[in-house]
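Internal tracking record. Fields below are filled automatically when a chain is submitted to the structure queue. Please do not edit lines marked as system-generated. If the sequence contains nonstandard residues, flag them in the REMARKS field before resubmitting.
Queue: standard
Priority: normal
Entity type: single polypeptide chain
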Amino acid sequence: MDWGIENRLSRLIKEDGRCQFLPIDHGYFQGPTSFLEKPSETIKELLPYADGLFVTRGIVRSSVPPNCQTPIIMRVSGGTSIIGSNLANETLTTSIDEVIRLNATAVGISIFVGSDYEKQTLTNLAQLVNQCEPYGIPVMAVTAVGKELEQRTARYLALSSRIAAELGARIVKTYYCPQDFEKVIEGCPVPVVIAGGPKCETEREVFEFVYDGIQKGAIGVNLGRNVWQNPHPVPMMRALNNIIHKKFTPKEAQELFEELAKSQ
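SYSTEM-GENERATED OUTPUT FOLLOWS
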């Protein structure tokens, strides 16, 4: 592995081999999302606990302080919206020059395996890897499913994750599935982080799936709505941080969350 790639990955993945990324890129297709209407306010108290911030270039410029020490993972795919005909019809939206200019540590891009735009989004990924590797910038592939959440089976996620790795992604962000998630991890030769998906009903539900995913081999999470849409986002972020970096159980994480929430 080249020094530049290794150095940038070491900023995102800590010495224990784990990471907690905070995504606030939802507006690129959802517009003003609940609790993310003012991104700068949303992230202000969460940044100290994030190992990486997944964000678009527009929000980097408008909402992230220039003295931010949290590594930036820049979303560079888009071009669709929730009111359009197909969320999978994405293209590359940000040049490598812009990525370098904004000092991003890594970039992220969605792929839609099995969709009408499978070839397009996979080619987007391959082209992005070709552009980023010469500059030592790692690519994170996001195995997106659009509105078809029922696709989140181990077989589908393993297929998507492996293809992403084969095309050169250095990290894969994919969904957790309760059955056979370890097979998703085993079939992917690069590190896997868990996506959040729709907001869960309880904090304990989040702690349970994150803990199980880590036990089965994921190196961390990329959770947004289950953190900043929670009534107590900082306690939620800190409790998850302890599952990831300090090996807390769901019970211990719940106890910490409740203790921190009471003190707010």
